[in-house]
Every structure is written in C-alpha cells, then in structure tokens.
Specification:
Layout (H helix, E strand, L loop, with lengths): L1 H6 L2 H12 L1 H11 L10 H14 L2 E5 L5 E5 L8 E6 L13 E3 L2 E3 L7 H17 L7 E6 L9 H7 L7 E5 L6 E3 L4 E10 L3 E2 L9 H12 L10 E10 L5 E2 L2 E10 L2 H26 L6 E10 L9 H12 L5 E3 L7 H6 L3 E4 L4 E3 L7 E3 L5 H14 L10
C-alpha cells in the first residue's frame, strides 16, 4: 500500500513519534482551551489563544481575519497543491455555561471539550511535529482554526475562507467523534424562523381575536405530517417555539425555529416550498376561524443555509484518509451522518472531508461532554500522514490532489 511508503521515511517516523511523546502537552492545551467560553460569534478569546500558539510554534504568515478565523502555514518544498487542515473554535454552549473541567477516573468532563476543542489542540501537535522535524509537503499546508461551524453560526468561517481570493486544492476538517471516521458527503440544511403576529389581547374580554400561538400550532401540525423519502436521507424538525406572556393573554407574537436537512438539494427545496405553503395556510385558517377585521400575519426568515453535495467514495482524498488510518491500525469508517465545514468546498467541487478526533469521547453537545485520552495521539498521527499524502512528499504523489 502506498501509505506504507510514507511510514518508512525516517523523518516522518520521527514526526509520528514526536506526536505520541507530545500527547501530554496536547492534553494540557485542550484543558486550557475548553475553559475559554466560545459560542458561535463569540470566539475571539479562543482565537487569540490559537494565534499565540501558532506564533509560538513558528508557523509562517500567522494571521487572523476580520471574523476571527486564525491561519498559519508550513510552506511547501516544491510546487504541490495548497491544502488546509482545519478545526472550529466555536461550541454550542451559551457564554454563561460553567466550563470548569472535572476529572472522573480517566475522563475529563467539560462542555465543549471534544467538539471541536480537541481538534484545535490536535492542530498544534501536528504543526509542532512538522516544525520540530523540518517536515514539509510539496505544497503549502495551511492550519486553520475557524469560527461559526455550529448551529446558527451557519458555517460562516469556511464560507468566508472559500469566498475569498485565496485558493485551496483540498480541505480536511477534524470534526467527528469516531477517530477512524471519514465524512465525505455534505448534508445540506435550511433553517427558518417563522413568526406569526397579531393584535393580541385579554383571553376573555378579547376572545375571538385570531391567535398567533394557535396559528403556530396549526402550522406545526401540518409540518408533522410532511412526507420524506427513505433515500436520500431527509429530515425536518421544529426545534424552538416562543411566544406569549401569560396564561390569560392572547399573544401578539409567536415564533418557531425550523430545521430541514437532506443529502439532496432537490429535497431541501421541495420541503422548503412545502413549509412556505403550510405556514401561510395556517395563518389563513386562523383568520378564517374567527372572521375578524384584525388578522394574523406570518413572516418567514431564512436564518441558515448549508449546501448539500457529495463526492465519490473512491476519490483520492477519501482513499488517502482510509489508507492513513489503516497503516496506523485505526479502523476506518465511512460516515455520512452530518453537515460539517467540508460542506462548502464539497459543494464547490473541491476535494474535502471531515475526519475523527483522537481519543475516546461522549456526551457531545451536552454539559456532560467527556474526553478520555486513550491512544489520543493516533488521530493527529493519521492527519499528519493524510496532509503529506494530499500535498505530495519527496516525489511521492499517489494521493496528491
């Protein structure tokens, strides 16, 4: 297997051993970072931490853009492709969340300790291993800690990166709970805020006014009956509902957040069209029920848009990740269960994947999130091999993009 040739190189062997020996420092950096609150759109403090680390490691062209994406580069030795290794700095937890690290046997418990803070720490050890050994690919390898991957962050960080004048030939995001995981598809999503508004009033004396909350309920009932295909996988969800001031008040406003996901752009558009129809029907039905001069109106806002896309399971970037895992004794696994920062380049036709973090983990997106540093160096070791393979190394170009 071609990847075995890379593992026979003395300099690469030295770098792989460096990552293993550096594991304790990587853990310490993880524990420091996960105590820095970083909800989407509020990552500046963590970005500053990353900027200082990139400078300390000695990466070239270390800089932060206007939305707090942080970059550092190891220049290539030749004329190979320019590839990016990324991890996102934001977490799903509100700024006031207690992020004190707790030790429970061999596990460390802290909201956001895995997704994706562990991955950011892995950027550091990979970059250090390359700088300390003088290891370089044929093309530039750009390390990036990007913002706004989660939820309503809506992939703002990578949208900014791939909407700029900078060119990248390949992209790898470290963002999966399974170390051997390889996400090669892009599950798309459209997120809406739907708001019903009315006159509002007292529940007894003003009874008969069209009620925004009742209209909202009518809409949710219709959404619950949406029909979806078995394949491509398509989902819908009303995740948040808001409205009202008291039990005896006809609300003046009620809203819901709706998430539609699919591996198919066509299904996304179909369900989005149905959503538009049913919320208008719900408002009309509520108004028709009471036949009052005062009416309920509805506003539909798009608050998030992630494109869908796919690429072949046999393309170079997927094969490189698979083979890099195998050669290190990691069990590789093709996964297609989520949207990631890789959605944007995949949709643009740029080879891109998301791969798993090292170690063991659980409780993702809950305050009970935990990390266990069991053989945690294997993830960054795999990514070192992967990035060198994609870039090309000393004439080895079997996987070069």
């Amino acid at each position: 297997m071609g990847m075995e040739r890379l593992c026979e190189d003395q300099l690469i062997c030295k770098a792989l051993e460096y990552i293993k020996e550096d594991d304790e420092r990587t853990l310490c950096e993880l524990l420091e970072m996960c105590q820095i609150p970083a909800p989407s759109y509020m990552e500046k403090k963590k970005a500053d931490y990353v900027w200082n680390k990139f400078q300390e490691i000695g990466l070239s062209n270390v800089h932060m853009d206007e939305i707090w994406n942080v970059f550092g580069t190891i220049k290539g030795s030749g004329d190979g492709p320019r590839v990016m290794l990324a991890a996102h700095t934001d977490t799903v937890f509100p700024i006031e969340t207690d992020v004190t690290v707790k030790k429970e046997d061999n596990r460390y418990v802290c909201p956001g300790i895995n997704d994706d803070t562990r991955a950011v720490a892995e950027l550091f050890t990979i970059a250090r291993a390359m700088m300390e050994t003088g290891l370089r690919g044929e093309g530039d390898i750009v390390f990036c800690a990007n913002v706004c991957e989660e939820g309503l962050g809506d992939l703002k960080g990578v949208k900014r990166i791939f909407g700029s004048t900078e060119h990248y030939d390949g992209f790898v995001s470290i963002d999966n709970p399974c170390t051997g995981g390889i996400i090669y598809t892009a599950t798309g999503s459209i997120r809406y805020k739907v708001t019903f508004r009315g006159h509002g009033g007292h529940s007894f004396s003003d009874f008969g006014l069209p009620n925004p909350i009742h209209a909202l309920g009518r809409a949710i009932g219709k959404i619950a009956e949406f029909q979806i295909p078995e394949l491509p996988k398509t989902t819908f969800n009303v995740g948040v509902i808001e409205g009202g001031t008291s039990v005896n008040t006809i609300a003046a406003e009620a809203s819901m957040l709706v998430d539609i996901r699919s591996d198919s752009e066509a299904e996304l558009e179909r369900l989005s069209g149905e959503l538009q129809e049913v919320v208008k029907e719900a408002a009309d039905a509520e108004n028709a029920r009471w036949k009052r001069e005062e009416k309920v109106s509805v506003e539909i806002q798009t608050i998030g848009r992630r494109p869908a896309g796919t690429q072949s399971q046999d393309c170079k970037i997927v094969r490189a990740a698979w083979d890099a895992a195998c050669v290190l004794g990691i069990k590789p696994e093709l996964r297609d269960e989520s949207s990631t920062d890789a959605n944007i380049p995949i949709r643009m036709g740029i080879p891109a994947i998301a791969v798993g973090r090292g170690g063991k983990e659980g409780g993702i997106h809950t305050v009970h999130e935990w990390f266990e540093p069991a053989d945690a160096w294997l993830g960054p070791q795999r990514d070192l091999l992967l990035m060198l393979a994609l870039s090309g190394y000393e004439g080895f170009r079997e996987y070069q993009l």
